[in-house]
Specification:
Strand 8 and strand 9 form a beta hairpin. The chain folds into two domains: 271 residues, P-loop containing nucleotide triphosphate hydrolases (Rossmann fold, 3-Layer(aba) Sandwich); 64 residues, Roll (Ubiquitin-like (UB roll)). The strands form three sheets. The protein has a six-stranded mixed β-sheet with strand order 2-4-1-5-6-7, sandwiched between helices. It has a three-stranded mixed β-sheet with strand order 3-9-8. The chain is built from 13 helices and twelve strands. The chain is α/β, with parallel strands linked by helices and 361 residues long. It starts with a strand and ends with a strand. It binds guanosine-5'-diphosphate. Guanosine-5'-diphosphate (GDP) binds next to helix 1 and helix 7.
Length: 361
């Protein structure tokens, strides 16, 4: 499955956040290089529709979609030159499908900042510079080989041009992502085999003090720094506390800081979308479940996520939009109102489709 790599300078709260994500007890140490082995945290994507479906179908359990977060250690200034755990860092990040940067905005004299001061803007620049330098190294290595190849292969011109264009963006100090050259897009297609780091989708987690959670003008400033990437604001320590509490106490704690839901819930949802994923829903007495598909997946592809045989033997899908089903109150009522559609092989799945597949075995 697709993974999101969590990166950030030392002491910004990555371990604290990751612990909250996994509810594990990894040591959150107050010094650089504390986290060395990458760890994976599998997090449920909260989806209130599942409970509503369960109420309609009498489902015994709810199965949300999940996102995989990988805790990647070792970014410091000079990582692209192999400083710190540089090379391992780059290899781990190359394997991730999206990059989640954790940025420190909280002020705490007891927690040392590697560069001596808390500055989200500077920290973002430090991290992006390392990623940009790593990509430029990749390109410098590839260009001479492409030049040689171009003497034999006539059709390689567009690829050389794409690499040159990427180089220009990077030399300006921009990430490829920020210029729309993002994995999966047409612009990035010819660069695919270079596995460039800055063409992965980015998202940013600002680890803020509790009073900044509701400070809209502060948040707008940070959002402007990272657009077009999404920005999420949370307090990692608060998230760690929330992860230990039962639902009622957690709600009370959230209310006390003016938040409606845990930052981790937002992170899971935004992370899921950043990976280019969406869900469709199935429901029955046994379970209500959200299934993960790429945005733009067709009905047979969606069926294949449940079982490859469903895809091979796909006949059609009975689809009711979640809103229609909720309004009708039952599948039978939705059908009689004409809200149940029979969709064929070409149908592109929409988020929140409630589906039953018909297939040959
Ligand atoms: P990492 O090096 O990025 O993994 O950072 P850690 O999660 O180990 O956190 C470094 C230190 O900062 C620890 O002492 C944490 O308790 C503390 N810390 C983490 N998040 C917050 C926060 O939101 N507010 C404050 N005041 N301290 C935090």
């Amino acid at each position: 499955s697709l993974t999101i790599g969590i990166v950030g300078l030392p002491n910004v709260g990555k371990s604290t956040l990751f612990n909250a994500l996994t509810k594990n007890d990894v040591l959150a140490a107050n010094y650089p290089f504390a986290t060395i082995e990458p760890n994976v945290g599998v997090v449920g994507v909260p989806d209130p529709r599942l409970q509503q479906l369960a109420d309609i179908f009498g489902s015994q359990r709810l199965l949300p979609a999940t996102v995989d977060f990988v805790d990647i250690a070792g970014i410091v200034r000079g990582a692209s030159e192999g400083e710190g755990l540089g090379n391992k860092f780059l290899a781990n990040i190359r394997e991730s499908d999206a990059i989640c940067q954790v940025i420190r905005a909280f002020k705490d004299e007891n927690v040392v900042h590697v560069d001596g001061k808390v500055s989200p803007k500077d920290d973002i620049e430090t991290i992006n510079t390392e990623l940009i330098l790593a990509d430029l190294q990749t390109i410098e290595k590839v260009l001479p080989r492409l030049a040689k190849e171009s003497r034999i292969k006539k059709d390689i011109g567009p690829k050389v041009a794409a690499v040159e264009a990427a180089k220009e963006i990077l030399e300006r100090g921009d990430t490829l992502f920020s210029q729309g050259v993002v994995q999966g897009s047409e612009k990035a297609e010819l660069l695919h085999d270079l596995h460039l780091l800055t063409s992965k989708p980015f998202l940013y987690v600002f680890n803020v003090d509790e009073d900044e959670l509701t400070d809209e003008s502060f948040k707008d400033e940070q959002r402007a720094l990272v657009a077009p990437a999404e920005a999420i604001f949370l307090n990692a320590k608060l998230e760690a506390d929330l992860a230990e509490l039962d639902e009622a106490d957690a709600l009370e704690l959230l209310e006390s800081v003016g938040a409606e839901e845990p930052g981790l819930a937002i992170l899971a949802r935004v992370g899921f979308a950043t990976l280019g994923l969406q869900t469709y829903l199935t429901a029955g007495p046994k379970e209500s479940r959200a299934w993960t598909i790429p945005q733009g997946a067709t009905a047979p592809e969606a069926a294949g996520v449940i079982h490859t045989d469903f895809q091979k033997g796909f006949i059609k899908a009975e689809v009711i939009s979640f809103a229609d089903l909720l309004e009708a109150g039952s599948v039978a009522e939705a059908r009689s109102k004409g809200k149940a559609r029979m969709e064929g092989k070409e149908y592109v799945m929409q988020d929140g489709d409630v589906v039953e597949f018909r297939f040959n075995v």
